[in-house]
């Protein structure tokens, strides 16, 4: 007996899904549904109330016959989420202000974390996004600084992305769109948690003053087109991070020097006397100074007192060194100079200058308003006791002027024409006064009272001789000149 074999029943189901773009890293349409449909596409026996494989796959919601029960669809709504900024809204943070807005997709971010917001969160501290703003280790910025930002970036999509950063350097509440406040770098596809360098424009020298010490920065990452002109607006993907930044003034190296006669020192002196000056060195900067060399320019007519061991003489200059001077501190050093015996009457101007100095690191320092050197001749428009640069007279250089009183050396000789005489004889006395300098003498007088045993007869008229007082008035006597008075008298 032959055994009957029942025919096998075969069923083929076909599935279709639409609403998902082909590339996993492309932009998802905002809130677009993913529709997944299935239909019986074949059956050996056929179907009594449906037609297999008659779905319109280009629009699965319009399948061949809505009454057929061999097909069914389900929809999944994909909700798009966005990252927005948290700097003050003048920079563009709120969506309503056209703020920076990025749809979040996998594989494209700054730093380690990213979160979504319903809207921007303007904040004076740019901190409401919490720890997800972690792509940039934003340093304190220094006036005049050459700046490169290190940004941690991930782009594991299949498209290249752009990274652009802005810093409001002038504190006007806006990110400049002309490139003066921004830098950019390309982010290749496949970049994974890499530190990329964004070269920024140099921090302006006036940034601290312009921003009053703080401002804001923004970095944007997207496969969309980003340039210096797009610090805000919608981007198809990626992330935006905002930061509050601080500015500090450039460390200032600024030394000044003053010189004056030491307290109690007379400003009018005579040849041969010693003059003591006090030199004051001021650190007006914000950093310490080391190895400060002070040079004293000894003028003609003066010399270093050999007992002053604080200074080392070298021809017409003398030097001393100050080891360390902290920011804001002041120190003094005295110097003793001797006025030459032959110094002419008049003014003597002595100058001193900071001729070298080192910064805290031991490197040759550049003063903010002076040039350390040992050339007094390059100072112009000299002003005494200046501690802020004025014209050509730098404040690390100063002068002090004293007056040398006139000095004369008067020599007097007296001779007699005979050594013996009788009563009634006539004798002649000769008095010669000589000025050996170095200056001209004025108001010269010589007293020569004749003894009572002599009777004045006459004189030669050199000057004026008062027979009653015996005073010979010479008056002016130039350096090197002599005058002689001859007095004739009778012996009683």
TrEMBL record:
<dbReference type="InterPro" id="IPR045474">
    <property type="entry name" value="GEVED"/>
</dbReference>
<feature type="region of interest" description="Disordered">
    <location>
        <begin position="114"/>
        <end position="136"/>
    </location>
</feature>
<keyword id="KW-0732">Signal</keyword>
<dbReference type="InterPro" id="IPR051172">
    <property type="entry name" value="Chlamydia_OmcB"/>
</dbReference>
<feature type="compositionally biased region" description="Acidic residues">
    <location>
        <begin position="385"/>
        <end position="397"/>
    </location>
</feature>
<feature type="signal peptide">
    <location>
        <begin position="1"/>
        <end position="29"/>
    </location>
</feature>
<dbReference type="InterPro" id="IPR001434">
    <property type="entry name" value="OmcB-like_DUF11"/>
</dbReference>
<feature type="domain" description="GEVED">
    <location>
        <begin position="164"/>
        <end position="246"/>
    </location>
</feature>
<feature type="compositionally biased region" description="Low complexity">
    <location>
        <begin position="366"/>
        <end position="378"/>
    </location>
</feature>
<dbReference type="Pfam" id="PF20009">
    <property type="entry name" value="GEVED"/>
</dbReference>
<dbReference type="InterPro" id="IPR013783">
    <property type="entry name" value="Ig-like_fold"/>
</dbReference>
<dbReference type="Pfam" id="PF01345">
    <property type="entry name" value="DUF11"/>
</dbReference>
<feature type="domain" description="DUF11">
    <location>
        <begin position="254"/>
        <end position="378"/>
    </location>
</feature>
<dbReference type="InterPro" id="IPR047589">
    <property type="entry name" value="DUF11_rpt"/>
</dbReference>
<feature type="region of interest" description="Disordered">
    <location>
        <begin position="366"/>
        <end position="399"/>
    </location>
</feature>
<protein>
    <submittedName>
        <fullName>Conserved repeat domain-containing protein</fullName>
    </submittedName>
</protein>
<feature type="domain" description="DUF11">
    <location>
        <begin position="409"/>
        <end position="491"/>
    </location>
</feature>
């Amino acid at each position: 007996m032959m055994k009957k074999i029942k025919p096998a029943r075969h069923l083929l189901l076909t599935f279709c899904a639409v609403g998902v773009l082909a590339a996993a890293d492309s932009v998802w349409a905002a809130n677009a549904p993913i529709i997944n449909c299935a239909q019986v596409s074949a059956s050996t026996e056929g179907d009594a109330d449906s037609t297999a494989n008659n779905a319109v796959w280009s629009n699965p919601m319009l399948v061949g016959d809505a009454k057929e029960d061999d097909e069914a669809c389900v929809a999944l709504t994909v909700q798009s989420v966005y990252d927005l900024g948290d700097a003050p809204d003048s920079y563009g943070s709120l969506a309503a202000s056209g703020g920076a807005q990025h749809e979040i997709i996998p594989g494209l971010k700054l730093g380690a974390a990213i979160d979504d917001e319903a809207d921007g969160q303007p904040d004076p501290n740019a901190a409401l996004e919490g720890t997800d703003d972690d792509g940039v280790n934003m340093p304190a910025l220094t006036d005049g600084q050459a700046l490169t930002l290190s940004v941690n970036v991930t782009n594991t999509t299949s498209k290249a992305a752009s990274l652009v950063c802005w810093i409001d350097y002038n504190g006007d509440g806006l990110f400049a769109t002309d490139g003066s406040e921004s830098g950019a770098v390309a982010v290749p596809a496949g970049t994974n948690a890499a530190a990329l360098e964004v070269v920024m424009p140099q921090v302006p020298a006036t940034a601290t003053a312009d921003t009053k010490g703080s401002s804001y920065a923004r970095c944007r990452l997207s496969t969309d087109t980003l340039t210096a002109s797009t610090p805000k607006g919608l981007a198809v993907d990626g992330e935006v991070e905002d930061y509050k930044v601080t500015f500090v003034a450039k460390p200032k190296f600024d030394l000044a020097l003053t010189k004056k006669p030491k307290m109690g020192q007379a400003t009018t002196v005579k040849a041969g006397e010693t003059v003591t000056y006090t030199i004051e060195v001021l650190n007006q900067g914000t950093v310490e100074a080391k190895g400060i060399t002070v040079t004293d320019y000894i003028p003609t007519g003066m010399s270093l007192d050999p007992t002053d061991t604080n200074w080392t003489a070298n021809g017409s200059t003398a030097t001393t060194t100050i080891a360390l001077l902290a920011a804001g501190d002041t120190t003094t050093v005295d110097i003793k100079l001797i006025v030459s015996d032959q110094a002419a009457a008049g003014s003597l101007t002595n100058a001193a200058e900071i001729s070298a100095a080192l910064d805290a690191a031991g490197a040759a320092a550049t003063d903010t308003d002076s040039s350390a050197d040992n050339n007094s001749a390059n100072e112009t428009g000299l002003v005494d006791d200046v501690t802020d640069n004025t014209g050509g007279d730098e404040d690390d250089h100063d002068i002090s002027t004293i007056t040398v009183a006139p000095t004369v050396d008067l020599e007097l000789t007296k001779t007699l024409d005979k050594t013996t005489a009788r009563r009634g004889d006539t004798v002649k006395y000769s008095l010669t006064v000589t000025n050996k300098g170095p200056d001209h003498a004025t108001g010269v007088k010589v007293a020569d009272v004749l003894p009572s045993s002599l009777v004045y007869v006459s004189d030669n008229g050199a000057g004026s001789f008062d027979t009653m007082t015996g005073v010979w008035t010479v008056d002016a006597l130039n350096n090197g000149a002599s005058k002689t008075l001859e007095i004739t008298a009778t012996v009683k």
